[in-house]
Amino acid sequence: MQPLIYSLVAAAVVGAVPLLLRRALVVRVVGHSMTPNLCDGDRLLGWRRRCRVGDVVVFRRDAGDDLAHLVKRVAAVAGDSVPAEFRHTFDGDRVPLGYILVRGDNARSLDSRRLGLVSLDSVVAVVVLRLEATCT
C-alpha cells in the first residue's frame, strides 16, 4: 500500500510543478521607492492572481528606460474612489474598470501620482512573500 501512496504523491508533485512555474515569479527590488518596507536587493515571490488594495504588485511599465518593471503597493482598484493625492493625474471620481492606482511606500516614489492609471493587463504578479531581505 505504501508504494502506491508514494507513487501518487510523486505524481501529484510532478504534475503541480509546471502549474507553479506558470503562476509564480521571483523578482529582485531595485531602488528605494518601497523603503522602509522593501529594500534595494530584496528578493520577492510573486503569484499571478487578482490584486486588492494594500497588495504589493509587480507591473510592466511602458517606457524605454531601465525601469521595465516596477514594484508598488495598490492604492485603489476599479470602482474605488480616487484618493485625493491622485486626483490631479486624471479626471474622474472613481478608478475605471481594468485599472488600478499604485503608490510607493517612499514619499518620493515614482507611482500613480506621476504615472497615472496602471492597466491590470500590465500587472505581472502580486507579491506574496519576501524570500530574501536586505534591510538592516
Structure description:
The protein has 136 residues and is of the alpha+beta class. It has a single domain (25-132), classed as Umud Fragment, subunit A. Helices cover 19% and strands 30% of the residues. It contains two helices and seven strands. The protein has helices spanning 2-23, 112-115; strands at residues 24-28, 43-47, 56-60, 69-77, 99-103, 118-119, 123-132. The chain has a seven-stranded antiparallel sheet. A hairpin with an 8-residue loop joins strand 3 and strand 4 (69-77). Mean pLDDT is 81; it is low at 15-19.
The CATH architecture assignment turns out to be: Ribbon
Give the count of structural domains: 1
Low-confidence stretches: 15-19
The name CATH uses for the topology is: Umud Fragment, subunit A
Spatial sequence of strands, sheet with the most strands: 1-2-7-3-4-5-6
Query: Measured on Cα atoms, how large is the radius of gyration?
Result: 18 Å
Work out the helix count: 2
By CATH reckoning, the class would read Mainly Beta
Order of helices and strands: HEEEEEHEE
Summed over residues and divided by their number, the pLDDT gives a mean of: 81
